[in-house]
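User: Can you help me understand a structure? I only have the sequence.
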Amino acid sequence: MNKIPLVLLAVALLATSGTCAALSDEEELGKLLYFDTNLSTPVGQSCASCHEPSAGFADPDNGLSVSQGVLPLNRFGNRNSPTAAYAAYSPDFGTITEDDETLYAGGQFWDGRAKDLVEQAKGPFLNPLEMNNPNKRTVIVKIKNSEYADFFEEVTGVDLKDLSDSNVELAYNKVAEAIAAYEGTSEVNQFSSKYDLYLAGDVQLTDEETLGLELFEGKALCSQCHPSEPGPYADQALFTDYTYDNLGTPKNMDNPFYDLPRKFNPEGAGFIDYGLGGFLKSSGTMGWENEAGKVKVPTLRNIAVTSPYMHNGVFGSLTEVVDFYNTRDNVSSNWPAPEVAENVNIDELGDLGLNETEVTALVAFMETLTDGYAAPV
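Assistant: Let's start by predicting it. Here is the structure, written out as tokens:
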């Protein structure tokens, strides 16, 4: 087998330094694709541009509420880029039964419109607000001309010289499968936080962090949607149940998506993000109104390094998020109205009664969920 080009391998290794998992050939190919900035039009943006390892596999530019596309002047997505870490554990999009209630769960993107990680990986390449390639053929031609073209062919069995429609489709599927394979590795899903070391008995939490954990699993009701126990999708806690919820999040009027040309956002500042409900409506699903405003519950792993927060990036800090959860329904709090007023969760947040010390403790606990923790010697 031809060797992977050393320059490309060095870039990928540097981006994920500190990890030592052996990758299969498919995973190694996926890693090269994930970090290749030549796979956008124009060149300059890769998957890692919005899902950077050093930023918890989320967007490293936390000064923007949503991610910027490869075209610099006027291309922004309408949502905050979620972390790619631990996304591989999400079940395929569908319904589950919980306490005799049927709930949507799983899938990818904030609204679940991709069934699984392979389908998700196909989207950004062709999104004009992201990597902006006009078609699949353009992506495959870029790979055909890359330094790892031979490696791609040997791993996938696809002849890149054949640019027929059927072969381009096959090659594009192999691209997505390889990226999804890489995103399923321990380089992306490290389970290496202080909390993991605490569970293993290697470190102790501080008194403040311990209080935060007690609140997380008790008074603050966080674990209702962000379970701190293993299962059912992994042997470790994922801090998400992969269901969908409308938290009453307000619109983010600083979202640059509102200022995009009408071609991309015909509603301007009047745009309403209906989340899961919007996806279900577009797919002709009956009862979509009952899911309007709901978005996928994110993992809280690496949450301290993946600001801004919520699907629209409206909150800049974890403290602000906890304050919102704690006081949303208090008359004196003056939070803006929900972007979507229907289906707002009123059972697990809104008036938690947390004092300032407890808010600080909750944030301190969530800061223990950042991967790459080194125990004191």
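Now, to help you interpret it: The two ends are 42 Å apart (CA to CA). The chain has a mean pLDDT of 94. Let me know which part you'd like to focus on.
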